[in-house]
Amino acid sequence: MSRQRNHGTLAFTAVSRWLAGLATSLLARSLNLPEPMLLVTGSLVVAQVTEIESRALRSLCPARLRRRLLAWLR
Questions:
Q1: How far apart are CA 47 and CA 49, in angstroms?
Q2: What is d(CA 66, CA 54) in angstroms, rounded to the nearest whole number?
Q3: What was the pLDDT predicted at 11?
Q4: Do the Cβ atoms of 64 and 58 come closer than 8 Å?
Q5: Average pLDDT score over the chain
Q6: Distance between CA 32 and CA 30 in Å, rounded?
């Protein structure tokens, strides 16, 4: 079955893609970078932030904190 799409959804999608492209172009110009390099750099930053967040959550694990506290109190 195909899904029915109304005209408003298609217009919103087109406008949002156009705005995302415009924002990317303006940011690339302001940083004096080519657009593909800006997109790759953004992907790298997202990967690094994800890794940092996962490390932080791993270190805040309740079982691990309990073990560290018990080791510290001995």
A1: 6
A2: 19
A3: 85
A4: yes
A5: 86
A6: 5
Residue 69: predicted pLDDT: 85
Tokens 């506290």 belong to 69
Contact, 28 vs 21, CB < 8 A?
Answer: no
Q: C-alpha angle 32/36/37, rounded to 5°? A: 55
- Using the 8-state DSSP alphabet, how is residue 3 labeled? P
> Looking at residue 59, what is its pLDDT?
77
Joined tokens for residue 74: 């001995």
Say how many residues make up the chain. Answer: 74
Question: For the segment 1-13, what is each residue's pLDDT rounded down to a tens digit?
Answer: 556 666 677 888 8
- The encoded tokens of residue 18 equal 């156009």
Q: What is the 8-class DSSP label of residue 32?
A: T
Q: Alpha helix locations (H) across 1-74? A: 7-31, 35-59, 62-73
